[in-house]
Structures are given as structure tokens and as C-alpha cells.
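We emphasize that the prediction below concerns an isolated chain of 320 residues; any contacts that depend on oligomerization or on bound cofactors are therefore not represented. The input was used exactly as deposited, without trimming of termini.
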Amino acid sequence: MSSALNDRPGVSEETRKRIVATANELGFVPSLRGRSLSGRRAFAVGLVVHRDPDVLELDPFFGGFIGGIEECIDARAYALVLQISASSDGALDRYRRLAADRRVDGVFLNELEVDDPRVGLVEELGLPAVGVNAEAGFPLPAVRQSHDEGIRALVAHLVELGHRRIAYVRGRSEFIHSVRREAAWRDAVTSTGLVPGPVVSGDFTYAGGLSAASALMGLHDRPTAVCCANDLSAMGFIAQAQHMGFDVPGDISVAGFDGIQLGTYVRPSMTTVQTSPRRIGFEAAKMLLSVIDGETEPDVRIPPAELLVRESTGPAPAEI
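Result of the prediction step, given as a C-alpha cell string:
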């Protein structure tokens, strides 16, 4: 019975189906603790978020990503162990404890950093791991979604609207995806023959967007359009620009990145480059479970991020 319910070899498919059907009729649920002891597995996967603890409350991207993970692992009766650490050392320590206590069978490495120390650590610990949006040459299996196409489409959209001074609100410089998004924006602007506008930090937060708007809209030669590294900072930028008396998009066009649902609720609704956090989470979980099972998985590329044009971008003002 145990082999049939846990999908292990040695049981014919006909017998397995009969046992599973009977268990369902009786409302039988296998004990996770029992499965762990018999199979030398924790039947859990780990996600360590290296951010301030309020990030899950403030950034809806993580909700979609975690939802995708749960959608996948639920079918295998796995659990997700989520931990949060604001410090780099604290995050590394959590990986060590997860491995030492055998609390998880594998982990996700999301929001990869430049020279990320977690890569060497999970290899040292022998802990199965999957990277999320890793660079080429990443030594572990990874799920990737290209951001470049969407950012090029966004810049082309702004240039077609007549914008010539296009600024950028960057994310946190230690994250690879933040560095890559800024580089893609710079390349896209340069390829049109324009000079990239000023760059200020937004820290991927709403408060960072507020600060960025105060800095950029106070310039004598202020930009007519701004691309933000994520939707949350773009929402803050719009709010502060309006508070300062500027019209969006009449005086300044604002675009975000991620495509979170909240972007449709702000006024004006936000132009953004839409990523696929739920799909990324699902594919990363599917890959991690395969790696845990000892299978060799090729990297997965999901469709590129796409431009969604809404009300927050419009024609460049005739004069400033």
C-alpha cells in the first residue's frame, strides 16, 4: 500500500489505481512524517528570501512566484518552507540549517546576486538547487525569462511618442536581474541614437519611487519619460510626481516592470513590461523536484517578458 500511494516502483499500474481509489474513498491521507522516515526525504523544498521582512507584504511579485511553486509541489504532496532574512550572513545561515536539519530536499536560488555566495554553499552542502533567472554559465539548473525584448519594446514605444530624455529608476545593484534590466534599458536607448537620461536609485520599493520622483522632477532639464526597474517603484514615482503638481502622462510618462495586478488599479493605469512570476515559480518547482529525484534537467526558457501599454505613457510634452 505504501509503495502504491507514494508512487514507488514494484506495484502494477492497475493495482496502484485501485489502492489510490480506495484510499480516496476512505479519506486516507499519508503521514508526511511517515513518508519522510521511510523514504529518507523531508518532502519539502526551501525558499529563502534575502530581503527586509516586509517585502512579502509590499511586493506582489512574490505572491505570484510562490503561488506557482505551490501549484506544482501540491501534486507531489510536498511542502514549501519559507524563510526571510534581511542580512546576507543570515540568509546563508538559513541554508546551512535547512541542510543540517534535513528540513528540505532542495532549495530555490532566486534574486541571484553578482558573485552570489549561495551557489558555492549549496554545492558544498550537497543540497539540490535550482536558479531563477541566472546568467549564462550558471553551474546549476535554471529557469530563465528574457527581459531584454520587453525593455526594447518599451523604449521604442517611448521614442515613437516623441520622448528624447528618458530616465531610469534602478533597483538594487547587488541583484543580477537589476543590473541586467538597467543594461538592457541603456542599450535600447543608445540603439535609437539617443543619449541615456539620468539614472537614480529606487531600491525596488514604493518609497524608493517617491524619492526618485523628487530627484528627477526637480531637475532643471527634467526627463519627459522614465522607466522604472519594477512596478512598485513606478507606483511610488507616479504618486510623488502627482503630489508635486505634475501630470502623468502629460508632463512625464512613467513605465514599470513586472506586470503586477496593482498596476491596473493606480490612476493612470500603468504601462509595464509583464513578466511571468507564477509560471517561473511553477517551472522552477517542477525542475527542482526532478533534480531531487536524481534526474538531469536541461535549463528552461519561458516566453520573454512583453510590453503592456496603458495610460501612464503618452506623447512627449511640446516644451518643458
